[in-house]
């Protein structure tokens, strides 16, 4: 069943250099539609860096060079003709620290839409409700949409940030340790939400939390020092890893 | 026990220093207002100055100060916002932008009398603008622009990088991110800086003595055609401002009530600058609350 799913992103031989320092040493892996893929590994292993190559956020750092190809819907996002602005509408991103804009909750959610030129109040209202419902926070905030997003708790802010990404209707959502700044209850709520979302989106998740990866992901990739060590079904990775490094890491022997 | 004692001593010393500063400020304010306010009346604020008799006012100087302020802010605000955005968001780190920053810092520490003489040579003489509001406004721009630019740059820079990432990751272009996210967030700081800058410009004298001139010809407040020579709006007429007027009557005023006029004008100037300072706080906070929806 899982194998019938279409591949939406395939990265081939991706190298990334910070100046001369090679942070990614030829990563080749693909991501399937409507699955949650977890990227795990110790700090500095390159998993976040790799995540950020998928929507070209690394382009913003001067001195970064990237080689290799990343195909999204059979188009190389590193082709010279790629419009990074359009790309980031298809591949949304949620960061480790909740970073809502210091505007109202309503404005936060529709920021992308409004800037894309949507003016119709009904469409905007509807988008706000749908996105906040998908992010499982509609009931909490529906009566205070005009209040500042900064007045919410960290977990609620993070869900507003996710709603903000959903409102743009991306195909893929990248999450860079989205729950590491949150308490366990908020984390659990966000995990459940991600499980709901995967019917409609492809989700790629960087996490330090091994339980989180094993609870919600379909496939798991283990990174170490810029290399992709092992990539397989989450069950296989956690119960029956092929590589010794993977086993050491998930059993807590290092990292 | 010993560290507790030292903590108490240090706290006491700091309180004392802060108290001295507040006392100095309070003494100055009370002194100026006490001497000046009795002389301030509606007549004083609205009638023209007199050179030889007593009973002159500061009406024209007051109008000139505001007009000059508005003109110079009209020139310097757009430039400083553009330059600040460039320096904070677009400038790469290299020798050229370092040179720009260093130049701005040097420019901002130039004594204002030097800026005034520079303005005299460049705007009044070379550009042929003479002693005029326009020369004065340009000289004040030179004087104020570096500080405003640095203020815009610092306000934008204080917005966390995660906000820029959030905008870009949402599929906004860099310009949209700057325009629709970073600038609105920095707006309270920018506006506060602008109003403080306005207060500084309002009280400036040295830069204006040789540019806007030291004479306040009578104005015809019924003719607002900017090309008419006695029109209040004519930017090419000489225009002594309030601060210059204070300097002038103290150095060469020969009217019998020179000291009262000077004290009254000083009180008005101080009150205007205070309004700018408190206004800056109020407006900045108000905009921040309004934009962020916090209470």
UniProtKB/TrEMBL annotation, chain A:
Residues 9-250 form the ABC transporter domain. InterPro entries: AAA+_ATPase, ABC_transporter-like_ATP-bd, ABC_transporter-like_CS, P-loop_NTPase, PstB-like. Signal peptide: none annotated. SUPFAM superfamilies: P-loop containing nucleoside triphosphate hydrolases. One of its GO terms (molecular function) is ATP binding. Keywords: ATP-binding, Nucleotide-binding, Phosphate transport, Transport. NCBIfam families: 3a0107s01c2. This is Phosphate ABC transporter ATP-binding protein PstB. The gene is pstB.
Automatic annotation (TrEMBL), chain B:
Residues 62-280 form the ABC transmembrane type-1 domain. Pfam families: BPD_transp_1 (PF00528). Keywords: Cell membrane, Membrane, Transmembrane, Transmembrane helix, Transport. It is found in: Cell membrane. Its main location: membrane. It is a multi-pass membrane protein. It comes from the Bacteria. The chain crosses the membrane at residues 12-34, 66-87, 99-123, 261-280. Belongs to the binding-protein-dependent transport system permease family. CysTW subfamily. NCBIfam families: 3a0107s02c (TIGR00974). This is Phosphate transport system permease protein PstA.
């Amino acid at each position: 069943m899982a194998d019938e799913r279409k591949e939406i992103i395939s990265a081939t031989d991706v190298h990334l250099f910070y100046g001369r320092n090679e942070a990614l040493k030829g990563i080749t892996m693909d991501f399937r539609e409507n699955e949650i893929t977890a990227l795990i590994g110790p700090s500095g292993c390159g998993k976040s860096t790799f995540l950020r190559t998928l929507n070209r956020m690394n382009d913003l750092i001067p001195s970064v060079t990237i080689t290799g190809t990343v195909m999204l819907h059979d188009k190389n996002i590193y082709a010279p003709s790629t419009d990074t602005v359009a790309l980031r509408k298809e591949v949304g991103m949620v960061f480790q620290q909740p970073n809502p804009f210091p505007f109202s909750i309503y404005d936060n959610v529709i920021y992308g839409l409004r800037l894309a030129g949507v003016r119709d109040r009904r469409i905007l209202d509807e988008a706000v409700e749908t996105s906040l419902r998908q992010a499982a926070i509609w009931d909490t905030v529906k009566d205070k949409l005009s209040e500042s997003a900064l007045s919410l708790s960290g977990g609620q802010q993070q869900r507003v940030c996710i709603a903000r990404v959903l409102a743009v209707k991306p195909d893929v959502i990248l999450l860079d340790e989205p729950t590491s700044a949150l308490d366990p209850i908020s984390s659990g709520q966000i995990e459940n939400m991600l499980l709901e979302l995967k019917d409609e989106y492809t989700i790629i998740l960087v996490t330090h939390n091994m339980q989180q990866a094993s609870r919600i992901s379909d496939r798991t990739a283990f990174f170490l020092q810029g290399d992709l060590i092992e990539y397989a079904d989450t069950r296989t990775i956690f119960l029956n890893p092929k590589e010794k490094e993977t086993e050491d890491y998930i059993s807590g022997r290092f990292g | 026990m010993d560290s507790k004692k030292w903590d108490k001593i240090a706290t006491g010393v700091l309180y004392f220093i802060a108290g001295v500063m507040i006392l100095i400020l309070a003494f100055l304010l009370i002194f100026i207002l006490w001497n000046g306010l009795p002389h301030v009346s509606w007549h004083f604020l609205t009638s023209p100055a007199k050179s030889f008799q007593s009973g002159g006012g500061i009406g024209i100087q007051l109008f000139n100060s505001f007009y000059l302020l508005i003109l110079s802010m009209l020139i310097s605000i757009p430039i400083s916002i553009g330059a600040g955005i460039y320096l904070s968001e677009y400038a790469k780190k290299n020798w050229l932008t370092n040179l720009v920053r260093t130049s701005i810092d040097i420019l901002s520490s130039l004594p204002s009398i030097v800026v005034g003489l520079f303005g005299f040579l460049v705007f009044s003489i070379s550009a042929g603008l003479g002693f005029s509001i326009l020369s004065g406004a340009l000289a004040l721009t030179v004087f104020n622009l570096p500080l405003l630019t640095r203020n815009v740059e610092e306000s934008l820079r204080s917005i966390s990088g995660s906000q820029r990432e959030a905008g870009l990751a949402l599929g906004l272009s860099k310009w949209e991110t700057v325009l629709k996210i970073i600038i609105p967030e920095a707006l309270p700081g920018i506006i506060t800086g602008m109003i403080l800058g306005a207060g500084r410009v309002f009280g400036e004298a040295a830069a204006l003595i040789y540019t806007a001139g030291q004479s306040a010809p009578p104005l015809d407040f019924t003719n607002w055609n900017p090309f008419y020579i006695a029109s209040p709006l004519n930017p090419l007429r000489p225009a002594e401002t309030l601060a210059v007027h204070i300097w002038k009557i103290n150095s060469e005023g020969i009217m019998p009530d020179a000291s009262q006029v000077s004290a009254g004008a000083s009180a008005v100037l101080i009150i205007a600058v205070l309004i700018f300072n408190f206004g800056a706080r109020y407006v900045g906070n108000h905009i921040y609350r309004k934009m962020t929806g916090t209470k």
